[in-house]
Amino acid sequence: MSDGSLMLDGNAAAGVLQEVFVSDATTARGACASCGTIGEVGSQRLYMAPQSPGLVLRCHGCEGVLLVLVRRPGHVRLGLQGFTWLEIAQPDAPA
Amino acid sequence: MSFVTRGFKGRRRDEAHADRLPPGQYLVRDFPVLSAGPTPHTAPAAWTFSITGELDEPKRWTWNDFRALPSETITRDIHCVTKWSKLDTIWEGVSVDTLLDGVDSAADYVMAFCDGGYTTNLPLDDVTGGKAWIAFGYDGQPLEPEHGGPARLLVPHLYFWKSAKWVRGLQLMKDDAPGFWETYGYHMYGDPWQEQRYSGD
Amino acid sequence: MAGAAVQRRLTWRVAEVAELVDETPRVRSVLMHVPDWPGHLAGQHVDVRLTADDGYQTQRSYSIASPPEAVDRLALTVERIEDGEVSPFLTEELRVGDRIELRGPIGGYFVWDVADGGPLMLVAGGSGVCPLMAMLRHRAARASSVPARLLYSSRSSADAIYGKELERLGGEGVGVVQTLTRMRPDGWAGYRRRIDRSMLQEVVWPPADRPLVYVCGPTPLVESVAEALVELGHDAARIKTERFGPTGG
Questions:
Q1: Which of A8, B118, C74, C205 has the fewest other C-beta atoms within 10 Å?
Q2: ipTM at complex level
Q3: Residue A8 counted as domain residue
């Protein structure tokens, strides 16, 4: 099995992330805290179940961890420190 | 009663060996590969293994030093927190007792650290007394990179996320501290027989 | 409307199987009626959840193959994976009238709407053609004149999904180029190898035309195509990829 086959595009995390963020997160843009690369979540490198015990999104520029998500009964825990910032479009939100 | 999908049976939950499966596990015959990141590829010439942290003098082995140490072949069942178990897996490795021989430390815990940045924490008691190895061989062959080669930590009595792939050393610690998955909610100890998958279990 | 499709809290819904279409010996389309379906964009997917009678549950993602305009029939096209857990069920056991749980639409990143313009370049390997088919069906339903091409790699003619429909689309102005990697019909004059850089150079618009590129299929194909396109000078920001990866079947 080639190493690449464990990795998906961030877009595949859409369902899981939408449970948490409500809005579609795959078009969200973020800045990598390690290297500064800015990109859409959907384009980043994703490792998730069943190929991983938890969801790990990595920067396509430097492979640094951007986001970690672990679900356990009744809770979801997010590690967001890999993003300096994360911006999600909210066209319907009040000004 | 929640929705049931007519006609769906799911993966055959193998009833053989049920007594050897911890709660909530199912048997597999292949060896699933799980990872949170790209596979590191470290050449033996660049590989070292270290004991660091709470001890007077850090210890270090090169690949050749490490392979010159006494090693053993062991057969064990392994249990992944994602619910698959594989029985009678055969490994070749150096006992962690051998690596810690002569080490004088007040530490009660270790943090395994690895190429790619992965870490996991364990009590010192759980990697000594013949319970843990640094494994370089699986099923009679050199351990493949996708399964953690050149060497991985092997601690079969705990969930397999504790058997850190691409291990490069153990840091001795006085107090317990969470490694990678433990930081994000996995259990600090991880006993499959008590189904300690997540913190709070 | 596009905003609405990506702005909803996801809930599980119960869909009813309305029709089953055998596309190839290993591929079947499942057409469903989904009550209160909020609409979707071409390229989005759904999660399907299956529950056994002992409570065991598992989930898989499938691209929506039907266009947004097919309001009453949501289509998923499923390839049966050898030793898979879910795909044999969906392609062999599932019957018309059965109900299955799904949630969606999901994913706003890998989508195309006629308003996005073109030229539209679609590159597919195997079942990777499914979300791209939704895009072509959407384009056709809107009678759009956005230039569009599909480069589609399959093992053989028999394995090429949507064969007849792609022929028809080819007759209607979509540039359909196939490469058959294992078996060819007699007299086949087309490509007969894996997609590579020189094939992409021949088939894809030049970088100066700034095509919007969508690549979907097995991970090794997606990676090599994306890399080759960047090497040929295409703007990485105009290339979107969807690796199918191992999903457990």
A1: C205
A2: 0.86
A3: yes
